[in-house]
Amino acid sequence: MTVLPRSVTALGVAVLALLFERPMHPYEMFQLLGARRRDRVVKVRPGSLYHAVERLERDGLVVVSGTDRQGNRPERTTYEITDTGRAAVREWVTDTVPAPTPEYPRFTLGLAELHNLGSAEALALLDRRMEALGVELAELDALERLAQERAVPELFTIPFSYTRAMVEAELAWLRTFVDRVRGGDVPWVTEEHLASLKLADQKGNR
User: Fold this and answer.
1) Number of compact structural domains in the chain
2) Which residues neighbour 133 within 8 Å (Cβ) at sequence distance 6 or greater?
3) 96, 118, 144: which is the final residue of a domain?
4) pLDDT tens series, the chain, 206 aa
5) Which residue among 65, 96, 127 closes a domain?
6) How far is C-alpha 129 from the geometric centre of its chain's CA atoms?
7) Minimal CA–CA distance to 40: which of 184, 153, 173, 143?
8) How many Å from the N-terminal Cα to the C-terminal Cα in the chain?
9) How far, in Å, are 65, 104, 129 from residue 136 at the CA level?
10) What are the residues whose beta carbons fall under 8 Å from the beta carbon of 65, sequence distance 6 or more?
11) Any idea what the Cα angle at residue 80 is, between residues 163 and 32, rounded to 5°?
12) H/E element, 107
């Protein structure tokens, strides 16, 4: 795996990818990332975006190409990508795409510790998650329809189609799991069972 500058984070890559198109200032970057719903792909906040641009400039991946002022607004600095920045994006994609790497999502840990709740509480929380996933699917479908109406090339929409597939798969898995728990196919672990498991571990470590 190529060792890239520390500024080449997910947000850093999103910034560099925008500058592939043309020079722009950070506020315009923030607007475009929101308009293109890249906030579904990478976490974007105005402050973190400005810091990302500063780090990219420090590492020589972007450079200042000019400044401008409109009316009474603060002066805005425009940045452009360097050849080093273009190479960094390509290297990041080349390193990221072929090899799956653990991402340690919070939800997986939540599932691992779900047994610490009572079954009724746990199932209620999972029901809420499934409702939220249903809303997310509807939003992703709306984005797909909008992209089709605007004739956006499909290659530009693959992050959303991939995300939709993952959300759909999670929702299907959760529905099956919840049904199995409610049907008794997956018995809930009681405090007595947990105590017996702990006792067995203690004996095994002697």
Assistant:
1) 2
2) 167, 170, 171, 174
3) 96
4) 567 888 999 999 999 999 999 999 999 999 988 877 777 788 888 889 999 999 999 999 999 998 886 766 678 899 999 999 999 999 999 999 998 888 889 999 999 999 999 999 999 999 999 999 999 999 999 989 988 998 989 988 899 999 999 999 999 999 999 999 999 999 998 766 666 666 556 666 66
5) 96
6) 17
7) 143
8) 43
9) 39, 21, 10
10) 23, 78, 79, 80
11) 35
12) helix 106-112
Is 1 within a domain?
no
Neighbours of 167 (CB within 10 A): 17
Structural domain of residue 148, as residue ranges? Answer: 106-204
Q: CA-CA distance, 58 to 56, in Å (whole number)?
A: 5
Degrees, nearest 5: CA angle 48-50-54: 110
Half-sphere exposure of 189 (CA within 13 A, CB side): 13
